[in-house]
Design a protein that fits this description.
The chain has four helices and no strands. By secondary structure, it is mostly helical.
Length: 80
């Protein structure tokens, strides 16, 4: 007698196809740039990629970031 669960009912939901590449993949890239790993986050992304058959790690915005210069850019301002 429980009500239906509110949320995505399929794997092709924007919660996966958008939030993983632009959320979790971003966190993984920031961690890698700092020399850290996020093994649980990476595991979630890998599992979702296997379930969906998609490359969810690909985020074209990540290639435009100057990762070595990011700490200084955040201090001095980006584009100043």
């Amino acid at each position: 007698g429980r009500a239906a669960v509110l949320g995505p009912a399929t794997l092709d939901s924007r919660y996966i196809t958008e939030d993983v590449p632009y959320g979790l993949a971003f966190y993984l890239a920031v961690a890698a740039a700092r020399g850290n790993t996020l093994p649980l986050t990476q595991s979630v992304v890998t599992a979702l990629e296997a379930c969906c058959g998609l490359d969810l790690s690909h985020n074209p915005l990540l290639t435009a970031i100057d990762w070595p210069g990011l700490p200084q850019a955040l201090v001095s301002g980006i584009g100043r």
